[in-house]
Amino acid sequence: MRILTDYPERLSQTKHVYTSPDQAGERVTSHQIKSVRLTSDHALITLESVPDRNAAEFMRGLYVLIDLADAVPLEDDEIYLFQLIGMSVEMESGEVLGPITDVLETGANDVYVVQSERYGEVLIPVTEHTILETNTDENRIIVRLPEGLLPE
């Protein structure tokens, strides 16, 4: 599998994983880990419930998820990227843009992909100037967009 975590070494300490067709993990299947081998950018995982390569082929494209209890603890002001998916994005004027559908991790800064009914797909750079507030209790993010980011 392609590694999306910053802490791949934790996979060797994990006993169970879940597979899901979506990153949000709304429909998951539990699997016990038999073995893990890490390469530079991939992990080779053998699951008890997957007897051979043919069975594994049917899992191509699925996300491999772990229990939140097995995740790296966060600082008080941090949030897991998966928690951002579905959060409502609002401009400081109060106009609702739409939900976050994906987070792109780039070299400079992350980018929130927002699906807006009015503007279509909106890419919002995650910087201290654009993200004014992230409120996990209210499931919303307040933004100040750079001029010209939205179509007229």
Topology:
Elements: E1 16-20, E2 29-38, E3 43-47, H1 53-57, E4 63-65, H2 81-84, E5 88-91, E6 96-105, E7 110-116, E8 120-125, E9 131-135, E10 140-143
Parallel strand pairs: 5-10
Antiparallel strand pairs: 1-2, 1-4, 2-3, 5-6, 6-7, 7-8, 9-10
Q: What is the name of the CATH architecture of the largest domain?
A: Beta Barrel
Overall pLDDT score: 90
* Total individual domains: 2
Low-confidence segments, given as residue ranges, are: none
Q: What Rg do the Cα atoms give?
A: 18 Å
Task: Write the element-wise H/E pattern from the N-terminal end onward.
Answer: EEEHEHEEEEEE
Overall shape: it is: elongated
- Could you give a short account of the major beta sheet? 6 strands, mixed
* Backbone structural class: mainly beta
Order of strands in the sheet with most strands? 8-7-6-5-10-9
| Content of β-strand | 35-45%
Oligomer: single chain
CATH H-tier superfamily of the largest domain: RimM
State the CATH topology of the largest domain. Answer: Elongation Factor Tu (Ef-tu), domain 3
- What is the tally of beta strands? 10
Helix amount: under 10%
CATH top level label of the largest domain: Mainly Beta
Written description of the protein model:
This protein has 152 residues and is mainly beta. The chain has two domains: 8-70, RimM (Elongation Factor Tu (Ef-tu), domain 3, Beta Barrel); 81-143, SH3 type barrels. The protein contains two helices and ten strands; from the N terminus they run E-E-E-H-E-H-E-E-E-E-E-E. The strands form two sheets. A six-stranded mixed beta sheet has the order 8-7-6-5-10-9. Strand 9 (131-135) and strand 10 form a beta hairpin. The longest helix is centred in the middle third of the chain and has 5 residues, at 53-57. The protein starts with 15 loop residues before the first strand and ends in a 9-residue tail after the last strand.
